[in-house]
């Protein structure tokens, strides 16, 4: 028991050496990790000193109604993105088929598969490592999702009622949070002021959406106007932006007509 307390003290001291008292919430999550005392304390302290994201140190993270394994091969699921899931769940949509582009951990596709258990749900990612983690998370969450290793629509052959994507949308020249250096660059940054991947997704979407289908995109608040115009130019109507948990307009959706 004393040895366990010494481990907790060592971890707490390492945390406060790195963060002071500015991030007590992270320490709380870490100290409440189920298998913390079975792990290599020296390794944990090193990761803390690097200011590695708490999600990667713990190795899993809650998102909406599920828990997801995470590592540096995938983007960390953000609570802001839960707004996307919540909006779709609370809408009157009843999609029979769903495509998630750039699935990462699989969290969006998996949560939507729970909400719409009768729907066919496909999810794609360019990273084989991400696909591997997503498959593990689908099994962990007892979700029926088909995963494809694909560069956006490259290996997609069907049409869907709903396309959802949280693609890379950060400008490579942006002054980003230091913690992002631990996450995969290809899941965060995009060329053309952060718009390259969003342009590809929008411009090709009508070939993969059923008539009357919906596309739902995450983007930076600064890109909202451009995204709305791109959707309208590509045949989408009722184009609408909604706010995330921080009250910034981070999501835009439209109906193909």
Automatic annotation (TrEMBL):
<keyword id="KW-0808">Transferase</keyword>
<dbReference type="GO" id="GO:0102559">
    <property type="term" value="F:peptide chain release factor N(5)-glutamine methyltransferase activity"/>
</dbReference>
<dbReference type="InterPro" id="IPR050320">
    <property type="entry name" value="N5-glutamine_MTase"/>
</dbReference>
<dbReference type="InterPro" id="IPR029063">
    <property type="entry name" value="SAM-dependent_MTases_sf"/>
</dbReference>
<dbReference type="InterPro" id="IPR019874">
    <property type="entry name" value="RF_methyltr_PrmC"/>
</dbReference>
<dbReference type="GO" id="GO:0032259">
    <property type="term" value="P:methylation"/>
</dbReference>
<protein>
    <recommendedName>
        <fullName>peptide chain release factor N(5)-glutamine methyltransferase</fullName>
        <ecNumber>2.1.1.297</ecNumber>
    </recommendedName>
</protein>
<feature type="domain" description="Methyltransferase small">
    <location>
        <begin position="81"/>
        <end position="176"/>
    </location>
</feature>
<dbReference type="InterPro" id="IPR002052">
    <property type="entry name" value="DNA_methylase_N6_adenine_CS"/>
</dbReference>
<dbReference type="InterPro" id="IPR004556">
    <property type="entry name" value="HemK-like"/>
</dbReference>
<dbReference type="InterPro" id="IPR007848">
    <property type="entry name" value="Small_mtfrase_dom"/>
</dbReference>
<dbReference type="Pfam" id="PF05175">
    <property type="entry name" value="MTS"/>
</dbReference>
<keyword id="KW-0489">Methyltransferase</keyword>
<dbReference type="GO" id="GO:0003676">
    <property type="term" value="F:nucleic acid binding"/>
</dbReference>
<keyword id="KW-0949">S-adenosyl-L-methionine</keyword>
């Amino acid at each position: 028991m004393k040895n366990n307390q010494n481990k907790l003290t060592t971890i707490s001291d390492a945390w406060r050496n790195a963060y002071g008292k500015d991030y007590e919430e992270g320490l709380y999550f870490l100290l409440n990790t189920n298998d913390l005392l079975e792990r290599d304390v020296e390794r944990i302290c090193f990761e803390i000193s690097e200011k590695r994201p708490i999600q990667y140190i713990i190795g899993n993270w809650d998102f909406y109604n599920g828990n997801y394994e995470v590592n540096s091969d995938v983007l960390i699921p953000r609570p802001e993105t839960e707004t996307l899931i919540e909006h779709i769940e609370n809408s009157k949509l009843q999609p029979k088929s769903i495509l998630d582009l750039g699935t990462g951990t699989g969290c969006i596709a998996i949560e939507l598969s729970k909400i719409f258990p009768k729907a066919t749900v496909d999810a794609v990612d360019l990273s084989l490592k991400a696909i591997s983690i997503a498959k593990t998370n689908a099994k962990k969450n007892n979700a029926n999702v088909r995963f494809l290793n694909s560069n956006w629509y490259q290996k997609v052959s069907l049409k869907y009622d709903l396309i959802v994507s949280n693609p890379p949308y950060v400008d490579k020249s942006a002054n980003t949070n230091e913690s992002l250096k631990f996450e995969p660059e290809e899941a965060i940054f995009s060329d053309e002021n952060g718009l390259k991947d969003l342009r590809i997704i929008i411009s090709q979407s009508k070939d993969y959406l059923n008539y009357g289908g919906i596309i739902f995109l995450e983007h930076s608040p600064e890109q909202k106007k451009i995204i709305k115009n791109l959707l309208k130019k590509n045949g989408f109507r009722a184009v609408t932006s909604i706010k995330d948990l921080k009250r910034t307009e981070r999501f835009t959706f439209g109906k193909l007509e």
